[in-house]
Specification:
The chain is α+β, with helices and mostly antiparallel strands. It is built from 21 helices and 22 strands.
Amino acid sequence: MELSTISDGFRAQIGEGERVVAAVFTTYRFEPEFFEQEIIPLMLDQGLAFSSDQRIKSIQVREALSEAGLPVEVFYDLDLFRQQGTVSPSMEYLHHGIRGERSAFHAKLVLLLLENVDSGEQCLCVGASSANLSIAGWWENIECQHWERVVNGEPSLRFLNQLRADVGWLAARRKAPLGDPDNALPRIQSFLKRCRSSKSASPISYYGLTSLALAQQRRPAFMRFLRDALAEQSPYYKNWTLEIISPYFAENTGFDGHEHFFNDLGVQEIHIFLPENDQGEALCNREYYEHLSQIDGIQWARWSPEMVGRLGLQTPVNRTTHAKIYHLYNGVQSWVFVGSVNFTHRATSDNQEAGFFTQLPTQTSFLKPISTVPDKWCPEDKLPAADEGQDDETSLPDLFLTYDWKLRLLTASLGDRHEEPELVFDILSSEGTVQVADIQVSHDTNPAACDVEFIEALLKNSGFVRVSGHWLPRGEAIPAFEVMVQQVNWTHKPLDLPHLSPQEIMQIYAGLSSMWRNKVIEFLKERQLREMGLLSEGVGSQPHEGSGREFFAEYAELFHAFHNLRGLMDDASSKERLGRVDYYLSGQGMDSLPTLLESLYEDGRELDQVTIYLTLLCLLQIYQRPEYQGRAQVDHYLQECLQKVAAIESAGELRLIDNDAERSHRFFEWYRAQFFRVYRQISDRNDHAAD
């Protein structure tokens, strides 16, 4: 176990011959940079080799995620992120800051929709754990995790309905962008809707986002869940010993969670794990420790010697225990709850939490009671705060901003929890001056009139914008605060990379290999970092192979490159991956068609007019296709190509031998007609070639 991480368990769910087609994550603490660099790659082509330099890897993963067309969504606790979040997403996936119904949004769920690459059959892997989407949670802490696989025709109806309810709960709280495409949560909803249950399925005890409804008078929802789960799964066994592993405890003696275990579950004895820091100080409120120590049947405990070895705790490195485990055993059976529920009032009563109650295959115990009082205690003012919400309600509005890079459109909406119907806000510069004034926003998602050049400059290197405003109609002022903007259509957001030459772009078209594109990104970013003095000459990959080669030595290579590109775009269209089509038509990536068009005219390019002319005709061949008409910005680039072609034809730089203007005009008309004419291969020798 000392070598196992949450990442390992996650990757193990994706079987050979399966691919991820949608993924939804819920978390309390959200670290976008770690999520993007280390979790998203686990869902992509495992044959891709990403750079160890995070500055390069970030761009490589962004491009690989876009190329894969994988929809991903993350739900996180909005209030905590406002307090601690400093890094915004750097690639395209939907992120939703939300609140729990009563207190914190604390569940750590993963919903992975998998598809068999041969049969096309789908299944849903549901994972619940104690781990946040953070480097500590997935790599460093002692955490817990349990997975269940949902296959059509196999799950119990109750478990299936619970999942449907939880996904519906999330759907009701997400603010989807206008014209929301087929994203991750709708795909999973669709799978669960068509999934059928089995009457013979074994019961699965799942505590989820909608389980707060289980609460009874004086009985918290979590206690009711454990009572019902144990009664269903193991009704004939009693005399349980309960081991509680939780990194956080109640801050006062008023919490009576232990009484429910004694009264409801038939528990005879409770062992509670006492965590320590790396100085050996007990991490618990001493008054609460002494209060529980005086109750018959309760003992404080540490890891058993066997668990110390299995967890690798005999090493000098002190691993933080962040797991939340409730383990019942009696010498005959062993049952365990694994999930996100701390042993606190807020966790058991008010938070949105998640976890599974399942049987262990063998009898075991995790803890060993301690007989002496700890001689060192962590000062109360330095005790780690429970990662499950704050008592004070925030007065800041739930303001949702989305910027669409393809449409160059900012939209705004107000969260549904607010009684006030509208607010007016201003977007501020980094110096605090008003740059975009009086944007009126309601619960409906509507376009916001603004200077898109200013918005794009703000969002170039960060997803945060600073706003202030006032409520309508009473005029109450809202202090300045930061909003993390949902950015969509990242294919149209310029990459922070040097431009490729037309020859280098054509080489990508000719190969159309994901691995080749990955290498090109690494080469470009390394070149940029060296020029900025941020990377030494001896560090990095070998020089970009073939970058100096004269690609246009034979014009057949140009036509071959565009033939490959058109085939790729046709394939994307047939699979309804229109985002990939739009990337080439109007995106701002390193090998999009607008980038190629711009590169033809960059200063210092030594391309002859024939090469530029033929490339423009190849661009026109794509932009004039009927199926692309009406797509974003296509007409703009079509007109630009037509103007540049007309300029070359009229400039006289390309001319016939006798330099006759009239004959040149007729020649260009004839040549363009022949260039765009579609020929087909014929098999009958007596037939003539025809279009």
